[in-house]
Amino acid sequence: MDAAQNALGRGDAFEWRVKRPRILTPLFPASLLSPGSLNVERRVIGPEHDVPWPTGAAWLEYEPKVAAVLGLETSTDEPFDPARHLFGYTLVSDWQARDASGAPVVHADGVPIAIGPCVVTADEVDPQVMYLQVKIDGDEVAKGNLNGTARSLYRTIEEASKTAPLSRGDALALNPFSQSPSEIWPGALIELAAEGIGTLRNSVQR
After folding, report:
1. Which residues contact 15 (CB under 8 A, 6 or more apart)?
2. What are phi and psi of 123, to 5 degrees?
3. Which residues sit opposite 203 in a β-bridge?
4. CB-CB contact of 43 with 112 (8 Å)
5. Which of 55, 68, 100, 205 has the most CB atoms at less than 10 Å from its CB?
6. In this structure, what are the phi and psi dihedrals at residue 49, rounded to the nearest 5 degrees?
7. pLDDT digits (tens, 9 = 90+) for 139-190
């Protein structure tokens, strides 16, 4: 903070200002575990960033997710303990490209995953009662709290940590809603909001 204050106090500070500032993703997880996801390397984008429309896609399948982020590595001798290993929570917007027949469109790096707008530490939020809302083009398509999803997150991380050690910054994301994924078209605006975390907002390129 002192360094920032000193920099802003310089006479030429405003000559270096960013004309169109934007929030970057708060996390580049070394591993983002998510049941059902394709085993491909995925790019990560932040809030307010555009999602590029993938070549060959007829539509996108959208899934809102909540991610638990590790702050301490695990081992096979010491599996996951939420009180000890968990750092916090963030939001994830996940897309899967589909062709006209509904089959997955597989690219080398997939459709980017959006993560954000921040990671809230575990002591600042109760995941059992966290309220979430999903809007597409301003229309609410899903809402509710995590309920048992938090316990499912813990259980899945614990099982994964028994198989192989997990590192700091690794995360596991689950869809808290039981309904089918939403169909997304070019130009759509997707907003995933969670109480205590904020809103992850992304537009799909036309």
Report:
1. none
2. -80, -5
3. 50, 189
4. yes
5. 68
6. -85, 150
7. 999 998 877 788 888 888 888 888 888 889 888 888 888 888 899 999 999 9
How do beta strands 113-121 and 44-45 pair?
Answer: parallel
- Residue 7 · residue 16 · CB < 8 Å: no
Q: What is the pTM of this model?
A: 0.86
Q: Report how far residue 27's alpha carbon sits from residue 48's, in angstroms, rounded to the nearest whole number.
A: 15
Report strand pairing: 86-98 vs 59-70.
antiparallel
Task: Answer yes or no: are the C-beta atoms of 43 and 113 closer than 8 Å.
Answer: yes
Rg (CA), the chain: 18
Return the structure tokens found at 73.
């590595």
Where in 122-160 does DSSP place strands (E)? Answer: 131-136, 139-145
d(CA 192, CA 124): 19
pLDDT tens digit string along 105-121? 877 667 889 999 999 99
